């Protein structure tokens, strides 16, 4: 990947925010929440939250080891938080004044923090140094809920700490319980939608599937063996379009009540997330028609930053 293309690959689908710059992501996220909520949300907690997120992923948080997953890296965490803030903004703009569907500042901040930390369960604990974080993929959402309950209980959002379970719908087989409140359902749907949009709209999504996701799947038996779902990388890529059309879209539209479509009106019909997703799927279709996987030419790198991996 040429230098300019590599530099552009650092940015979000709008081309406005450098996703490998935590301060830039914080500023973009904060500008949205400031405009929506002013002093009715804890802006200092947002700043602290992103600082803690960086410490966690870089192995500077007590009890946790440095992130070693390739696909689910710090960049993805930051982008999911930013995408969540944009969904909150789009939701607010879709409402009439005084609507009962309004999301208050405390819950909005909770949603952004849960989006930022939704994959924290992939981080290894100090007692798990011999493992690769990817082996925890099947249970990482539950581990993330546990972490966030503890973390939130020590913040101004302590009364909402139990709502850390709103991370759970990022698990592809999780169905939101009917017992959840409408607000919690909405918040959880936004968190999970932000997670999916952030992955699929990444300009290096296809290459990350080929180079990184296949390896992560191999860690817990989903890929890499003759009887696994994805015995080889080619099979993973061949099934990606179906994964989007049969599973992702179903969850976005049905399970999450189509909250992702708020982005269409938010961006006045030119939704950069959807455009990026369609570009990725279109290019994948071209590749599959020729079976020429050498056309996956971009060379993404996992982003964690810090002394062991330059940002």
CATH fold-level topology: Catalytic domain of cyclic nucleotide phosphodiesterase 4b2b
Low-confidence stretches: none
Instruction: Write down the domain tally.
Output: 1
Question: How many strands, which pairing sense, and closed or not: the largest β-sheet?
Answer: none
Architecture per CATH nomenclature, i.e. the level-2 architecture: Orthogonal Bundle
Please write the CATH class name: Mainly Alpha
Q: Measured on Cα atoms, how large is the radius of gyration?
A: 19 Å
Task: Categorize the overall geometry.
Answer: globular
Quaternary structure: single chain
User: CATH superfamily name?
Assistant: 3'5'-cyclic nucleotide phosphodiesterase, catalytic domain
The ordered H/E elements are: HHHHHHHHHHH
Helix content: 40-55%
Return the structural class: mainly alpha
Record field, number of beta strands: 0
Strand content: under 5%
Q: Averaged pLDDT, please?
A: 95
Can you walk me through this structure?
The protein has 311 residues and is mainly α. The chain has one domain (3-295): Catalytic domain of cyclic nucleotide phosphodiesterase 4b2b (Orthogonal Bundle), CATH 1.10.1300.10. Helix content is 52%, strand content 0%. Helix 2 (22-37) runs parallel beside helix 4, helix 3 (43-57) packs parallel to helix 5 and helix 7 (182-200) runs antiparallel to helix 9. The longest helix has 23 residues, at 233-255. The mean pLDDT is 95.
